[in-house]
Amino acid sequence: MIHQLEDINSDLNISCDVCVVGTGAGGAVVGKTLAEAGLHVVMIEEGGYFPPHSYLADDTVQSLVNLYRNAGAAVIFGKPNIMYAEGRCVGGSTTVNGGMCWRTPEKIMKIWRWEKGITHFSPQKMDYYFSEVEKNINAKSMIPEAVNRESELLKLGGERLGYEVKANIRAQDHCVGANLCITGCPTQAKQTMVTSYIPAFLKKNGDIYTHCRVHRVLTRQNRAVGVEGYFTDPVTKQKKYKLKVKSRIVISSCGAIQTPALLLKSGIKDNKKLLGKNLITHPNAKVMAVFDEPVNSWRGVNQGYQITEFFDDGILMAVNSTSPGVMTLALPLETKNILQALKNEFHHLVMGGVLIEDSSRGQVRTGPFDTVFPLYNLNSHDFEKTLRGVGLLAEVFFTAGAKKCYLPFRGLQEMHSIDDIPKIYQAGFKPTDVELLTVHVMGTAQMGGDPDRSVINPFGEFHNIKGLYVADASVFPTSIGVNPQVTIMALAMRTAEHITENFNKLLT
User: Fold this and answer.
1) Is residue 122 domain-resident?
2) Sorting pLDDT into bands at 50, 70 and 90, what band is 54?
3) Are residue 110 and residue 123 in the same domain, yes or no?
4) Quick one: which of 113, 143, 383, 488 has the fewest CB in 10 Å?
């Protein structure tokens, strides 16, 4: 069952076979798989439980508070600072993402298999896991009637230029295009963990404790033996009751920022102090286009298509409309002009983004009072790739008929034709002149075969601590260049099966 804060009135001490910290793409998959194998599994979630019927389609602010960490306004510090968002609720970021479903690209699988020592990580070996995950979340293309006009304009511009354009595969069942993905899908069409894996987990007598922040993984003689945490009031932030879990296996599925923070604060170390290093971000730069025709981008599902022509160069292009309030923050205008721009242009705006497969690397540091500091500087190679991506996306929009594009650069905020694109390269920009954001953070507990070059082994177990596993995007050794959800889920299922097949052996 789901144990919510109002159900708790004293400190708790419980025991189980497996304790999973986090209920997102990684945590929900390992939890369900292990529970179905007959193990007693307890999952702990820092956020609350919000079923789909409770999502607030007409209250974006409260949805951000309910479903996101820091209401979606967190920062990775560096040159430049990068805004990032992650879910903090049962279901994790699957509750608030676009539901994009792409398998790990084969070029990435070769790097992980050959260079990182992740055995059996090939399309053939992983097909079973990918297929099971895709079946459980109903991954498929959208019906054309549900795709919005801004996606069609992206496709139009790309095809006119002869670029490869792919229809997105999404975790959805009868999506009607309500376009409320990032504030919680109230129709239950988006197949989040709350609508797919979590119900199956609960049917197998799994337990979820909400509003509980785990602050320490307990170890004894280099073996994980449980966790400690506090139930916390979501409004006052006061700690109310203590939770102590005794378990034979601990799995951290807190995401690539919070997993290393938890393990570092627990005093856990790897051979070469790599934990928390190798932070990967998939930086995104926005391009907003204004068309003569009314686009009404809130109608129909966002991200119906991606332009994949430049994928081998590490550049993906897509669109992703958002609410008027968030759109206002995105407009690169002086304050006095924003309301006028919204009044005149909001119905005609398309918000596009360029995703960069980055080679830059950052790190996660911890501070007092549960503070966490992600640090990351964009290197010159990725910066040049960002400039190129912005130019390419602006070209797509102008080719589709845009009359103006807003850019993410200090000192060059507007362009009015394709002829203006060379200005991007003539302006002498520095990385601190570009505005970036991300919803994909990865890599901080990287997987690999060599304990001196990785944090966890190819099946997700910490090299130095028996019974301690990681199942989230922390395990990625490199950037993957596509939406990471299916990769996270497939690796989590693989980890869970390894645990079930070797459970008794793992305890010796």
Assistant:
1) yes
2) confident
3) yes
4) 143
Residue whose token pair is 């304790």? 19
Residue 394 DSSP label: H
Q: Are 397 and 157 in contact (CB under 8 A)?
A: yes
Contacts of 309 (CB under 8 A, 6+ apart): 158, 163, 164, 165
For residues 86 and 150, membership in a common domain is answered with no
Q: Predicted confidence band at 73 (pLDDT cuts at 50, 70, 90)? A: confident
Q: What is the structure's pLDDT at 503?
A: 80
Instruction: For residues 150 and 239, state if they share a domain.
Output: no
Are 115 and 199 contained in the same domain?
A: yes
Provide the domain limits for residue 424. Answer: 141-172+284-357+379-433
Contacts of 417 (CB under 8 A, 6+ apart): 398
Per-residue pLDDT, averaged over 192-208, amounts to 95
Determine the pLDDT at residue 216: 96
Six-digit token string for 485: 């959800």
**In this structure, what DSSP letter does residue 143 have?**
P
Burial profile 42-56: b = 16 or more Cβ within 10 angstroms, e = fewer: bbbbbbbbbebeebb
pLDDT at 212 over 80: yes
Strand partners of residue 380 = none
pTM check: above 0.90: yes
CATH number of the domain encompassing residue 504: 3.50.50.60
What pLDDT, in 10s, does the model give residues 57-70?
767 788 888 899 98
Total domains, the chain: 2
Q: Which amino acid is at 214?
A: V
In a domain, 178, yes or no: no
